Q: What sequence folds into this?
């Protein structure tokens, strides 16, 4: 085999590999990195997780760079309250956010005296002392942590500032084909409460369902290339942890 043929064969292999990778990433599963503390205590900065793209069907946002090749959503499966979902922010249809789905189309949601109400019924929550501090950006904040339970039985941890927590809001009524998301770190999350930046999220903006963490490291201790700090920065107990 001459050099020219060798180059062509290797280019073919690379092309096939690229096509296969795009298919897997677009239709099956895609890795994501957690860059913010808005989902603490459940997701930490430095968590790397897999998101299944087929969970809610496919839209243009299922594919790299969101090419405008079709409209709507195909093979659509309606998400459930409590799902942790990656979506494209409505403000630019480009930035990936990850939050917890709280309200479905037609639902009413409101904060009253620090408590969350869904369709005029208070969401049950029970206090737990297991977590007293979480990060908000680069700072640690003192919080009260609760186990919150949605009407469908879904349970998860949420954190509220111990002092000056988010207390009251207008009543949000979720439009048809839209969803309402909240971060689990309630006082350190830009989410559907903020209509000018996130607001209600259209079903076509859903990217996929977060399934499990496959790797986690604390960049505050050491970065990935600082191998002499790996034993301190790697969060081994979070490897292959299911996301609830």
A:
């Amino acid at each position: 085999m001459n050099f020219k043929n060798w180059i062509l064969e290797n280019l073919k292999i690379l092309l096939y590999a690229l096509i296969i990778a795009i298919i897997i990433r677009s239709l099956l599963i895609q890795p994501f990195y957690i860059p913010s503390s808005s989902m603490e205590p459940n997701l930490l900065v430095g968590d790397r997780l897999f998101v299944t793209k087929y969970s809610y069907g496919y839209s243009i946002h299922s594919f790299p760079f969101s090419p405008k090749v079709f409209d709507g959503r195909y093979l659509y499966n309606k998400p459930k309250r409590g799902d942790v979902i990656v979506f494209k922010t409505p403000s630019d249809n480009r930035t990936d956010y990850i939050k917890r789905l709280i309200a479905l189309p037609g639902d009413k949601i409101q904060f009253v005296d620090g408590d969350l109400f869904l369709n005029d019924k208070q969401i049950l929550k029970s206090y737990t002392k297991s977590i007293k501090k979480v990060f908000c950006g680069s700072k640690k904040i003192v919080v009260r942590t609760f186990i919150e339970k949605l009407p469908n039985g879904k349970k998860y941890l949420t954190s509220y500032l111990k002092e000056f927590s988010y207390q009251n809001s207008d009543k949000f009524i979720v439009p048809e084909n839209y969803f309402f998301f909240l971060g689990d770190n309630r006082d350190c999350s830009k989410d559907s409460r903020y209509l000018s930046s996130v607001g209600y999220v259209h079903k076509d903006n859903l990217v996929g369902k977060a399934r499990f963490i496959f790797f986690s490291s604390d960049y505050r201790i050491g970065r990935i290339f600082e191998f002499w700090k790996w034993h301190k920065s790697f969060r081994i107990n979070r490897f292959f942890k299911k996301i609830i």
About this structure: Residues 32-242 form a domain with the Umud Fragment, subunit A fold (CATH 2.10.109.10). The chain is about 10% helix and 35% strand.
